[in-house]
Design brief:
- Strand 1 and strand 2 form a beta hairpin.
- A two-stranded antiparallel sheet has the order 1-2.
- The protein is flat and about 70 Å long.
- By secondary structure, the protein is mainly alpha-helical.
- The longest helix is centred in the first third of the chain and has 34 residues.
């Protein structure tokens, strides 16, 4: 094996667990929801699932409430993204100019983002119980920290 092949296999080995979690938590439920949208079923009678092609979509696309909700959603998303962009740029541009203690101020602004992971993880996984009898670490706390990352 060449050195380049070894590096590629190593990189693939590092990416594989993240991709597996992505598939498990996002892609699989998304595919399942799309599959379910082409069926007619009731949660009260789960064994009686029938294929109905595009009926669910044709019924919804003909309803006035759907289009009103869709329009409101588009307006809301456009407005909030525009406002967040303007406020973010207005807050970021001053830190692009040189001034005394600029690096310190940048650090203060990013501190909540960087410190939240250790605080959250320490609280969920059993940190902060020093001096007392150690409790067993719950798997739910470990997985919550693993899946959430930073808050």
């Amino acid at each position: 094996m060449t050195r380049k092949t070894k590096k590629m296999l190593f990189a693939a080995g590092l990416i594989l667990p993240a991709f597996a979690m992505l598939c498990l938590t996002i892609i699989t439920p998304l595919v399942n929801i799309i599959w379910m949208s082409f069926h007619d079923y009731s949660l009260l009678n789960i064994k009686n699932i029938k294929w109905n092609q595009f009926k669910n979509y044709t019924v919804r696309f003909r309803e006035k409430e759907f289009w009103n909700s869709f329009l409101r959603t588009i307006i809301y998303v456009t407005a909030t993204v525009a406002v967040q962009f303007v406020l973010g740029m207005a807050g970021a541009l001053p830190f692009n100019k040189k001034f005394p203690r600029r690096d310190f101020m940048r650090g203060v602004i990013f501190l909540p983002r960087t410190i939240s992971t250790p605080i959250l993880g320490g609280g969920l996984v059993g940190g902060g119980r020093r001096g007392r009898k150690k409790k067993k670490r719950g798997i739910s706390g470990v997985w919550f920290f693993f899946l959430c990352g930073s808050v």
